[in-house]
Specification:
Elements lengths: L8 E14 L5 E12 L5 E10 L14 E3 L6 E3 L3 E3 L6 E3 L4 E5 L2 E5 L1 H7 L2 H11 L1
């Protein structure tokens, strides 16, 4: 059995563009654009572009642009902007796994672990309930 069931012959793969994006933490993310040419079973030559991010993002989604990459301040993983939230109290960027979503006034508010712990403290909740009334 062939490893190439569609009978596609890759003629060439060429790096045609790349850019380097440096995050505030100093991590470097490279955006590579390859032009891939192949011939299909009918002998037609086709060319397409493939975008690659190196290192790959932890969220598994290919970002649209370098500005779309965010770094979680807790786990330091790389994610797209759609996979991150910012803490309501301090503005730190967090991935969905590290963010604590808190219900407040029937609204879900993202918080970093430190601020979530402060808000969930029974003494703080007691005083907050006194001042809300």
């Amino acid at each position: 059995m062939s490893n190439n069931p569609l009978n596609i012959n890759i003629v060439g793969k060429e790096l045609v563009d790349y850019s380097r994006h440096i995050l505030p933490s100093g991590k470097e993310v490279y955006f590579l654009v390859y032009e891939i040419t192949h011939t299909d079973a009918q002998g037609l030559c086709r060319t397409y572009k493939d975008r690659v991010t190196f290192p790959p993002l932890d969220g598994g989604i290919q970002p649209e642009s370098p500005e779309d990459v965010r770094e979680c301040s807790e786990c330091e993983g790389l994610f797209t902007a759609s996979q991150t939230v910012s803490c309501h109290d301090c503005g730190r960027i967090l991935c969905m796994q590290d963010a604590a979503l808190t219900e407040e006034n029937e609204e879900r508010i993202p918080l970093c672990p430190e601020h979530a712990a402060k808000r969930n403290n029974p003494i703080v909740r007691f005083f907050n309930s006194l001042f809300k009334a």
